[in-house]
Design brief:
The longest helix is centred in the N-terminal third of the chain and has 20 residues. The two termini are 49 Å apart. The chain has an eight-stranded mixed β-sheet, with helices on both faces. It is 41% helix and 19% strand. Strand 9 and strand 10 form a beta hairpin. By secondary structure, the chain is an alpha/beta fold.
């Protein structure tokens, strides 16, 4: 059998330079979120298939890497013919596992609970730039806080973290979009859609950036919705212009359908967060922002950067998910960071790759160096490490120039050549 040396499609080998950059970014993420009081947790990479297929994950549920049953359980399922062959699956995000985790460990956790989760997730997606089948996700969530302080903390902490990271490439500008699922539902109901139809309508609106209002109209009509209702619905969004205020947008919604407290809540979040943002960071009300996950119940948010056709972070409030595990709803809101996409942006701007900022010394020892001198070099390297530097001791290659060039590419900035 021939072995294959390339990774599975949609998954990547990480070279040392890649890992230095990734660990550096992860360090900034942990430090920034830690300063806001978020506590790091960990959940298993596999979840019960029932949890992953609960119709809370939107289109991601179509992308699950399922894990087959094993042994006698698998044989019984095969003999049955119509039985489910999988009992577990690789997690496609960190939110569903967090909901299970909180329901299982609530009595041992503070209230409210501010969680930081970093780990790999898997989706059987079509790989492309910034999109992989295995990738790292970084989430912060606040559980047990029904007030908008949760959203204010989530947005300000994430904005602070992204500002720190992008300062490494002298980028200061990005945009935080914010909306509320309750407002989205109110528009659809005001137009004449039923409550049962709202979810399907929002799936179409979520494609606004890709197909525009004309494409949305075509899709809604193809789905069999009444033309007059579709026109009423799209009329509201045809009136949207850059910089539209929440009050202006809500003027086109039937007051009987409009949850005024949701509009006021959104305005308060924007008012509180804007003064905390760094120069160049914009926070805008975006009436077309949907976010595809079916579990969102209130404010939703997403971060974009000019020049890139993907979001780099997103999240929102999901007050009813944990109740599916515990039988009692728990207020919850979270922000997920597109770690791989952030790394992609950094690489696009970093010529020559990420360079270490600390002192990194390479001792190169010739083949004829006596034992006593070798021991002295090893002791010198140990002292440097104790002082906080990086020190490596290597045999000197015949082509020392090429060896030094490779070490420089790996971030070493000082060389000690020992010939005798």
């Amino acid at each position: 059998m021939k072995f294959i040396k390339t990774p599975v499609k949609g998954m990547c080998d990480m070279l040392p330079g890649d890992m230095r950059l990734r660990e550096h970014v992860l360090g900034m993420i942990k430090k920034t979120y830690g300063s806001y009081g978020f506590m790091q947790i960990e959940t298993p990479v596999m979840e019960h298939i029932e949890n992953l297929t609960s119709k809370q994950g939107g289109d991601n549920e179509k992308l699950i890497f399922k894990v087959m049953k094993r042994g006698a359980d698998l044989q019984r399922a095969l003999q049955k013919g119509d039985g489910e062959l999988a009992d577990n699956g690789l997690r496609y995000d960190l939110t569903v596992p967090l909901a299970r985790y909180y329901a299982n460990n609530k009595e041992q956790l503070p209230a409210p609970f501010k969680a930081l989760q970093i780990g790999s997730v898997w989706r059987a997606d079509n790989p492309q730039k910034g999109r992989f089948r295995q990738f790292t996700q970084c989430d912060i969530d606040i559980l047990g806080d029904e007030s908008n302080l949760a959203e204010i903390e989530l947005i300000s902490a994430t904005a602070s973290m992204l500002t720190r990271i992008f300062a490494e490439i002298n980028v200061t500008d990005f945009t935080i979009h914010i909306n509320d699922r309750q407002l989205l539902g109110a528009v659809a109901l005001s137009a004449g859609f039923t409550q049962e139809q709202v979810g399907s309508v929002l799936i179409s609106l979520d494609k606004f950036d890709k197909i525009g209002l004309d494409g949305i109209e075509k899709e809604l009509l193809q789905n069999g919705y009444d033309a007059a209702v579709v026109e009423n619905y799209l009329r509201v969004y045809r009136g949207v212009r850059p910089g539209i205020s929440i009050a202006e947008f809500c003027a086109g919604i039937d007051r009987a359908r409009l949850p005024q407290e949701a509009a006021d809540n959104l305005a308060q979040i924007i008012e509180c967060v804007r003064p905390m943002l760094s120069r160049g960071v914009k926070l805008v009300f975006d009436p077309t922002l949907v976010r595809g996950m079916g579990y969102y119940t209130g404010p939703i948010f997403e971060v974009t950067m000019d020049g890139y056709g993907f979001s780099i972070a997103g999240g929102g409030r999901y007050d009813r998910m944990i109740g599916r595990f515990s039988g009692q709803d728990v207020c919850a809101s979270g922000f997920s960071i597109g770690f791989e996409r952030i790394v992609t942006i950094l690489k696009d701007h970093m010529q020559g790759g990420y360079r270490r900022k600390e002192e990194a010394v390479a001792y190169l020892i010739g083949g004829k160096v006596p034992q006593a001198r070798r021991m002295q070099v090893l002791a010198d390297a140990a002292r440097l490490r104790e002082a906080g530097a990086i020190a490596t001791v290597l045999p000197m290659n015949k082509n020392i120039r090429h060896q030094i060039e490779r070490l420089e590419a790996e971030g070493y900035n000082r060389f000690e050549k020992v010939f005798e």
